[in-house]
Amino acid sequence: MFAAMLVAGLVLAPFDVRHYAVRLEPDLATQVVRGEERIDLALLASGREIAFDAGALEVDRVRLHGRDLQFRRDGKKLIVDFGSDQPARKTLSLEVRYHAAPKYGLEFHPEQRQIYTIFSTSQWMVAVDAPSERATLDLALVLPKAWSALATGDEQLVAHVDREHDLHRWHLATPMPSYIYGFVAGAFRRADLPETGTKLDLLVDDAHAQQARGAFAATADMLSFFADKAGVPYPHRRYGQVVVTDTIGQEMAGLSLLSNDYAEKVASGERTVGLIAHEAAHQWWGNAVTCRDWNEFWLNEGMATFMAAVYLQHHDGEAAYAEAVKGWRARIDALRAKGVDKPLVFPDWNKPSGDDRAVVYQKGAYFLHVLRGELGETVFWSAIRDYTRGHFNASVQTRDLQQAMERASGRDLSALFNQWAYGKR
Hints:
Distance between the termini: 32 Å
Structural class: alpha+beta
Helix content: 25-40%
CATH architecture of the largest domain: Sandwich
CATH superfamily of the largest domain: tricorn interacting facor f3 domain
Largest sheet: 8 strands, mixed
Strand order of the largest sheet: 7-6-10-4-3-13-16-15
Strand content: 25-35%
Number of strands: 24
Number of domains: 3
């Protein structure tokens, strides 16, 4: 896919990012990050200017083959001017230097000695945020020597920088959307988990180490379960989970973040392992099979919500699944009573409300439950495997899921998809 051509009425050249190489120096004391980045891209049509997502980054310099380029900001967009039209199919390597004190997207917790990303990648690196835009990544972090860290990709090395800092490097070889790039670093310890093939990393602070071992003990079983349902093995060499100070839960390529509070509640029996399963499910549905644009976000979140409940059915029994379905149904009824129910495919996903998110998560999951009941176990799971295999490491639309369900069942499912996904009668 390619980056958008139109920003604030400007006609910009479309392009495809192939690779990002980023070196970051986050400073816990000042809560500032400094970055140097190389962006390898190919122009898909001739043009003079291109646009990136850059959040609130303070861009200091943009260069092309050693030559400084003019650039300007248009809201959260960084507009780069080549100075003259560049031909189509030309490959370019831009160099960007920047700094920032992010208000979100990169969390600094000095008291706990933790730094970690939260979804908004363009708040800590220049990128293209669109979920359909995939690229490989080299990420390097300069961190205090005593710290542990995990990030998207395979860890390549840890090298000495100076008396107080080391350089950690990771390489993501499979092109993936930038919104699932990320890292976590801090004063963590590694806790062992039972493994059945995939290397598992669990980072946690000292106070929560014992609780986390119990809370995350089922991780290997989850990965095996989802691989079977997907018909595709877990797609990375290792899977990392980190228990951090505060998060609602976040998936990234090859790792997930969950909160101390959640780990405590799972360990005490107050919460299920559903959120752990939800983030693990995203390694297939969301990260590898990704909605083409945010208007069809339900293909990420509705699927992960449904798959987490299916895992609870496997792990805890039929009552656990029935309870999840009951909750989804109640939330849909509440949306309808309030007059805010919507089709799963949105006309736009600008400033979504909490009710909009309920449509995507709970209504999306319930629709998959409806399809499961309508088609039966054998046909439904055959369709899920066909859909997942056929679109692995690619972008999808709702019609791709519909076609997989129709191929597996030999039925026209237009009425169901029109009712739930498109809002047509």
